[in-house]
Amino acid sequence: xxxxxxxxxxxxxxxxxxxxxxxxxxxxxxxxxxxxxxxxxxxxxxxxxxxxxxxxxxxxxxxxxxxxxxxxxxxxxxxxxxxxxxxxxxxxxxxxxxxxxxxxxxxxxxxxxxxxxxxxxxxxxxxxxxxxxxxxxxxxxxxxxxxxxxxxxxxxxxxxxxxxxxxxxxxxxxxxxxxxxxxxxxxxxxxxxxxxxxxxxxxxxxxxxxxxxxxxxxxxxxxxxxxxxxxxxxxx
Length: 236
What we know:
Structural class: alpha+beta
């Protein structure tokens, strides 16, 4: 076994440590092993197992280029992780675009309409949305509501389709995610009901066309899910 590798003409990497991952149905753990000195041409021999330390993990992440720079967090940020970011937006007015084979909502295409306050989560380049019943910063216990849009699944996942979106979850990319969402064409419903309106999706948004009234949050479908649960749910 070759205990080293050369990249280009100036870099040579030597086998230094090995990590072994042990798993069961419910748990896993990792052991760290030094590589014992070996004779040329012989297979590597692992040293005694040591429990993996946080310091080693941090140094490994830094060496792999994953030590992200610090970012200032504006007040709209609710949570930030290495591969995810969550924020909220107050009620606002934005353009909406519609495109589907049945011609539904055709009369609303391109109009500026009132939108509810929203919670946005970008996780591993996927976008999730929930609505808020009040236009104020939510807390961990704030109850979520269904985001009343087409192209959104039961768990709040947005069908990105042809939507243009950034290749990052940095705080600086938030305007691009929002513009990509509002600038894309809403094409189809992924849920049975998206609001409490008896006349459905078109009735809800049609009632806002040509008006400057705020979005009727009393028409939102409230969920038992809290903000804390929405932020920590399994998105696999």
